[in-house]
Amino acid sequence: MSTRTPPVRSSSQSVTVTALVPPIVMFFGFLAVRDVLAFQLVLVAFMCSLVVSLPVLLRRRGSLLEPIFLVLILVFFGVSLRLLVVSTQGSNELVRNKLLNGEPADVLFGGAVAILVGLAALSLGYLANPALIRLDNTYLVQRPQWSSRRTRLSILGLTVLGILGMFMLVRTFGLTQISAKRFNSLEGGAQQRSSSIAFVYFRMALLMRFALYILLIFRRQVSAKYNLLIPVLFVGAVFVPVYVNNRAGVALIVIDLLLIGYLGAGRFKPGQVARAATFVGVSTVGILSVRGTRNSAVESTLFSRDLLDVSKTAQIIELESGSLNGQTMYGWMAAPLPFETEAGEAWSNLGRYVWTNAYGQPGQNGVPAGFVGELYLNFGWPAIAIGCFLFGFLLRKLYVSFRPHLDIPGIGLLYALTLPRFTIFVLSNDFGTGFWKTFADLAPIMFFLWFVGERSGKRERSERSGRSRQRVVQLREA
Asked: Which pTM does this prediction carry?
């Protein structure tokens, strides 16, 4: 199976307009301010959106698929809009409790400046022109065609394993409380072993996502009866993160589907995209409705500590800089898989450290520090600039390395499941979380691509490698 399209590039006008939307929205926010502090907070909010837009505006070309646009979304909702809400609704009880932790509004200023410094450095790093990681001679490029028989077998196998994992997960915890925290710290013995096994079930259940994505890419090469699996796999894929109270997991599925629909599934027509978006939206709302929560989507987005959150960064900045002496920046390399604690926090106690020290709260809860907060706690203010610059450089290097080969379905799938996750989890949580969560999805997909790739002769591989190098040169010169 081979589905080839030209290398991806959006029109310069659409890219520029999209990059300008957040700073323009923040510019109009100045009309709502009433005092000096509010003006200062909105000014920082405007500057945060603007500096992330600069790599796009200065180049005046690129693609909406670039990771810098994900950074822009994280900044818009996690920093800019929240600063605007505090500036205009500082007396609101929800704002005081959720974003200000009961303190005056000026507590956010230090965190906002720290994020601004980090974003400016990240943008500078992203403006670099790094050398590409050569993918020409990898099996991902040399074997772009998928074996029909092995692909169908993979879809069925992943579906069966996913359903089995979901069944065992529900059997372990029951259906009495949907969307509860399922992976809590336990003190040894049978309970800890039960939690470890449950996490294995959880990872098995997530395989339904991969079956869904592969089927979407391969849908034109299989009979109609396989397409009947698409709604079943989608409901199962969304149910799993909802069941374990993982909102980020639901959002990632939506991002995955958008990227795969554009990169690997034959470039859906506008009508198909509209119908798919309607189906995704209605299904997701229906599944989320079983949670029975009173919190609206707006509250969950603007008044939480998710994303690249300015409120938690502000609390962290009040702590002593460099107090962790680099522990979380290297400790994750030797960490075990997260079997005993809530998914995403086992390899590091950073979230619990922030909860206890920055928020002064007891218990086993945790608040992810965010990349800016993690850098500050480990090495202080200089690390924010240096670390964010290197991260921006890395994102650019990975993107330009993938870009010449995004017309290959396997590499499109790999890109959709790695770089967005790495970007979101590093900036919103910490570097170790970003690495391990990306690796957890990367490993099964790499095995799948190796398993289904059609073997080819030496001459054919040489010709394909030459065409690949030519595309790289063309994109460099464009």
From this structure: 0.81
